[in-house]
Write the structure tokens for this entry.
Amino acid sequence: MKEKLEQRLQSLKAEFDAGQKLLAEYETKQMNLRETLLRISGAIQVIEEELNQFTEAENDGQPVESEVVVDS
């Protein structure tokens, strides 16, 4: 009985360690993805501002209302 408990303990410890390692990998991937999305968001904003400037120039300097589209 003692041997079975020791084996089970070792098995659980190995599973726990593997789970912690996997969690750390996912947290790193999540952080990298958040940084990538932030960069993409910034690029979108810059391009939208540039497009608005072109549109204003085409309309003789009159500001143009931009339409915000939200996906549900």
Notes: The chain has one helix and no strands. Residues 2 and 45 are 64 Å apart (CA to CA). The helical segments are 2-58.
